[in-house]
Amino acid sequence: MKTRRYRAPQIQGILRQAEGGVPVAELRRVHGMNSASICKWRANYGGMDVSMISQMKTLENVGRRGSAL
User: How far apart are CA 40 and CA 37, in angstroms?
Assistant: First the structure.
């Protein structure tokens, strides 16, 4: 199964489209994604701006690597 990694500006743009009234079915078709992804992004990134999403992803990556501070 092919997985995609969306960058913070892409996530933010898709969430703004969803908030603007674009149906989730349309977003799924245009971006080739699952509706669960949009719901998950709303729960995780709702109300954040691009820089906050980037910082959060960076911290998650550092945590995965097991970096000792």
Answer: 5
Question: Are 55 and 25 a contacting pair, CB within 8 Å?
Answer: no
- Would residue 17 count as lying in a domain? yes
Task: Report yes or no on 46 lying in a domain.
Answer: yes
Residue-wise pLDDT tens digits, 1-59: 556 688 888 888 999 898 899 999 999 999 988 889 888 988 888 888 878 888 888 88
The whole-angstrom separation of Cα 29 and Cα 26 is: 5
Give this prediction's pTM. 0.69
Tell me how many domains the chain contains.
1
Single-letter amino acid, residue 15: L
Helices (H), 20-66: 24-31, 35-45, 50-65
Segments forming the whole domain that contains residue 50 = 8-54
